[in-house]
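[STRUCTURE TOKENS]
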Amino acid sequence: MTYHSKIIGLGHYVPENIVTNDDLSKLIDTNDAWIKERTGIEQRRHVVKGSGETTTTMGVKAAQVAIERAGIDKQEIDFIVFATLSPDYYFPGPGVLVQRDLGIDTVGALDVRNQCSGFVYALSVADQYVKSGMYKNVLVIGSELQSHGMDMTTRGRNISVIFGDGAGAAIVSREEDLTKGILSTHLHSEGEHAEALSLLAPGMGSRWVTDILEENDPEDLSYYPYMDGQFVFKNAVVRFSEVINEGLRANELTKEDISLLVPHQANLRIAQFIQKKFGLSNDQVFNNIMKYGNTTAASIPIALTEAWEQGKVKEGDLVVLAAFGSGFTWGSAIIRW
């Protein structure tokens, strides 16, 4: 029997704590106009320190909504794929913590470390497992708690104003109608530019945490994220276009067939550039970076969930997901809803 995979339930969760651009201006030499002009972001959500919220707990909350909307029992989930760059622990990954916290039977759990492309990569894994017949229902989560690791000073403003916290989830299930569901996914990487958007991991193959503490160098920025913003932007607009066109060609579709594009919410200017290049209307591209900032692996599932909740995703629509980020990695998913 040949199967397609289909998203049958979506959910998202964001922390209650809203941090506006004006709030950041009290900590950093910046202002609302400066941030909006460069990124399109007006506010983002940050987990309050000491609240007990983690990457895993946010992922669990998003998953609970997705499971309920899918109309399945949690014990019907056969596999878990969790995408994040901000796990609760260096190891183990959050996939097993979700299995524990949801009280799901001892199914497999896989962690995906592809940053901004993480959800598309995770969705691709789920898609292949379902299409092969190995699993029937796969829980896919993208969740990030990034705010606690940002340099909240003027020195780090080019990065710290961009990122936010949150989680999104999807239930990917078996579909016998081969005209529906995930038609194809397309994944790429270019490790040549790995350091252009990166964070050096203390310990594993580099410096140990004990070394950092012993040196106690206030000018040591190695434990904060680094981004060559202009270089990333230039690569992103090229790769976004390429991987969207690749997906359309693979399914003998054209840009005129797109009902809705849900891009990774990295920078509003990138999304607008792609929108213009493909000749899409405002109704054909869904952006919510204004409210949440860049939530990395969580951005596409949060945006896709909100688009569905607002009635912008309907049965029969051609929905395109596309992402680009650290690695460099990028990918797309072509979905007939």
